[in-house]
Amino acid sequence: MSKCQATPSTPLICQRCIKRMDHHCMFVNNCVGQNNQKYFILFTSYTCIISMYTLIILYYHLTNCVATNWTACPAWSPPMTFVFVILLGLESFGFFIFTAVMTTIQFYCIYTDTTGIEFFKGKRRSSRSSMSFLCALKTVFGSRVGLQWLSPFSRPMNYITQNDEHITFDV
User: Fold this and answer.
1) What pTM, to 2 d.p., does this model score?
2) Is Metal-binding among the key words of this record (predicted)?
3) Does residue 65 sit within a domain?
4) Which one of 32, 98, 136, 147 has the lowest number of neighbouring Cβ atoms within 10 Å?
5) Is residue 160 assigned to a domain?
6) CA distances, 37 to each of 65, 80, 154 (Å)
7) What confidence score (pLDDT) does residue 165 get?
8) Can you state the angle between helices 78-112 and 133-141, rounded to 10 degrees?
């Protein structure tokens, strides 16, 4: 069945055909597929990293406040500071876990040459054994391995699909 047809089990949310549709992301209000999977992975990866950084900063802030008997934290009273740190810590931890799981699933799907929909349905492809993980990453991030893979502002260069089709982006 084509991914362009809506069925009761897989509704067509964006009302258009998405090549290698992975899933519909409610956070970016768009379907994630072949042409934007790189940006989704970077989004979840960087959100995961920032959430971990926030947890580390909160830990150092709280330990500094406690070590100086709250004299280094005069903005709010000690109970309010503690409540704010705990609430922000819980939010950061939740984002960290969620984005770490999403990033891990995306890399696993790249490794197994499946989409998120196929992953959750338990489907596997037989073509995975013939493609290395680096080649699979090149289908998502572009054929040139380098720092541009980490930039959300760079478009994949010499983008190669699973069928060895070359895609160029208009500038």
Assistant:
1) 0.76
2) no
3) yes
4) 147
5) no
6) 42, 41, 13
7) 52
8) 110
Q: Residue 44 and residue 138: Cα distance in Å, rounded?
A: 19
Q: Is the pLDDT of residue 60 over 70?
A: yes
**Within a domain: residue 170?**
no
Task: Share the mean pLDDT of the chain.
Answer: 78
Which tokens is 150 given? Answer: 């980490």
- The residues annotated as belonging to the active site are 25
Domain holding 90, by residue range, is 35-147
Distance of alpha carbon 21 from the chain centroid? 15
Say whether pLDDT at 121 is over 60.
Answer: yes
Is residue 122 within 8 Å of 64, Cβ to Cβ?
no
Three-state secondary-structure class, residue 167: strand
Q: Is residue 18 part of a domain?
A: no
Burial 70-97 (b: 16+ CB within 10 A, else e): beebeeeeeeebbeebeeeeeebeebbe
Number of domains composing the chain: 1
Are residues 143 and 159 in contact, defined by beta-carbon separation less than 8 angstroms? yes
Following DSSP, what letter does each residue of 14-36 receive, concatenated? SSS--TT--EEETTTTEEE-TTT
Over the stretch 149-169, which tens digit does the pLDDT of each residue have?
A: 888 887 776 555 555 455 544
How far apart CA 140 and CA 110 sit, in angstroms, is 8
Query: What is the mean pLDDT of the segment spanning 12-25?
Result: 73
